[in-house]
Amino acid sequence: MKKYFLTFATVLCCTMALTGLTSCTIEDNPVNPTPDVSTTPFLDQLSQVENVISIEAFTPENDMVGFAECYKVFFSQPIDHENPSAGTMKQKALIFFKGFDRPTVMYTRGYDLPDHWKNSISNLDIAANMDANLVVVEHRYFGDSKNLDDTRWDFLTIEQAAADHHAIFQPLKQILPKEWISTGTSKDGMTSLFYRYFYPNDMTVTTVFCSPFMTSLYYKPVGTYLDSESGSDAEREHMHSICSRLLEGAQEGLFQTYLQMCDDYTAQLRALYHDEARQWFGTDWNNYIDGIGEYFFEQFSYHTAKERVNIFPPVDAEPKTLLDCIFFQNILQQNGLWHEDAPLIPPAPEEDYYWKADGSYPYTIQTVKQLGQYCYDFSRYESLIGEVEPPLVSTFLFDQDVWLCETYDNTRMKDIRENFIPSTDCPVMFYYAQGDPWTGARPDKINESRSMLLIGELGTHNHDINNPEHFSAEDCQQIMDFLARYVDYSNPTTSARRVRRQTGGNLPTFSIEPDRYMIRRSSK
Predict the structure, then answer these.
(1) Residues 383-434: tens digit of each pLDDT
(2) CATH 3.40.50.1820 domain extents, the chain
(3) Which of 322, 402, 451, 512 could bridge across to 490 with cysteines, CB 3.0–4.6 Å?
(4) Any idea which fold 3-215+411-522 has?
């Protein structure tokens, strides 16, 4: 067993009592000496890391940051960190090297890591703003980081994933000795905080964007937030008017029109995929109700208020137009069937039942084992439809995995939400967007002396802090100021670095004062 796997069992034993790991050794306003710059090339040192399986160099197509070297790396990981003799699996990471004297950002993916991420690095704004190295790690059981022998999903847990990140961090920290910052958005951010929970002293700072922390298999506060707080009063009134029409009109034949459209579109999709058995749409009353909630959940999550103005259909739209927009447009667009002149997308070849190409199935497994899932809040419509039960998560599982629903355990999630987040002295930044329904699962309380919780008015379910359509300059500044409390990322060779915000006019400049390690904005 490699030496940097040893701490997993120790940390696991400490947390089993659910006292929460809260102690960190991070201090405010660091005055860290510049580490000795290694004279050994980065690639040579990376090649000597014990658990590295392969290294492939690449050149990004769109590198606005200017990394010196970029590599796709596979690490060897124990399938079970508590029992390394059980075998190994591989785990993919992308490593973007800037310099030995720069801090390092670890982006903890909660899903797969497609190769196109090699060309999307300009969107990882924290790393860009800090002129930092960047390590992006694929989550176990996703993408190329799979254990094809475990068909029971025994080792797809937040404990094992945290140990994966620790095993990658420890040898890389020896090569890149300055501060490390973990970050992620949505499930990526959840993964980052889980890593912090089990290994509180690995990272200097953790930044979490739009990540839900749910403590039940069907977590209603997310749906309640969508119903009562997402967006503006006018937007929610528009949403409620459409919902009322769809539900009231169901008694007047609107539901029957929906069923006929399901049949028509299913026939087109089956012809495209040469599959006469596949069901593309749910055709019962609960599917109809759930589809309404899903539509508005997605619009508020992934579109700005400016964009939603042009997306929501008019309340008085023709029935077919209204139903198309709410239930069918997305899936038809994805398959090239939305407009008659749209090119057909050739079907992707089917993979093994457990490893679908879309990569989302392992996430469903995690929801029924530990993470939980949101459900919508239709209580205001009870006079029309009665009490609505949440959609059973078992309907999203393959038959051989339905048994996992009986294994749901919220012990870790409750301890993280109720104990660790409010009391940890580890520096953590939580960001949420006011319009995003996932904000309903934000922490109830944080340690304000060490952490920050920011709710932005402009944002959506993302992390692109340099995009003024999603983050105000003030929000971006607060995030970078928070990071500067704990990380000395000033560059001694430059007095200021330009951060490209997507504007048509002047670009702001963040100036770093080395004596204070704080950021001041100046115009240019």
Answers:
(1) 888 877 777 787 788 888 889 999 999 999 999 999 999 999 999 999 999 9
(2) 3-215+411-522
(3) 512
(4) Rossmann fold (3.40.50)
